[in-house]
Design goal:
Elements lengths: L7 H24 L16 H5 L6 H15 L7 H17 L5 H10 L3
């Protein structure tokens, strides 16, 4: 029985082709992963109830965004981390008592209230 040998060059091309298909498949699968989809939120529509119950996002992330937005409107570019955490805590407490209030209005309220 005689075996025919495939030249090495052809073997190498075949392996490279398989590797390319494997990598391309992996990239296609990871690119279509819905858990990595971009989510856009209209923060002006988030209610206090949604904020405190984690319905749309982690409340800390929302509080950080709102704080940056509000301080940016005032031209304040200084980040006071302790104050940010205190304001986020105040916002959560306010929202528990005022569930139907838009969270942005709630933040404006706590910023304008005396300490």
């Amino acid at each position: 029985m005689t075996q025919t040998r495939v030249p090495r060059r052809r073997d190498k091309k075949s392996k490279m082709k398989k590797l390319f298909i494997f990598i391309a498949s992996g990239l296609a699968i990871s690119a279509s992963d819905p858990s990595r989809a971009q989510v856009l939120l209209d923060v002006s529509k988030i209610t206090c109830s949604q904020f405190v119950t984690y319905k749309v996002e982690d409340p800390k992330n929302i509080a950080i965004w709102i704080s940056g937005y509000e301080h940016g409107k005032r031209g304040n570019t200084v980040l006071d981390v302790q104050r940010l955490m205190a304001d986020a805590d105040k916002l959560s407490k306010y929202c528990i008592q005022n569930e139907d209030t838009p969270v942005m209005r709630a933040f404006e309220t706590i910023l304008s209230s005396p300490e």
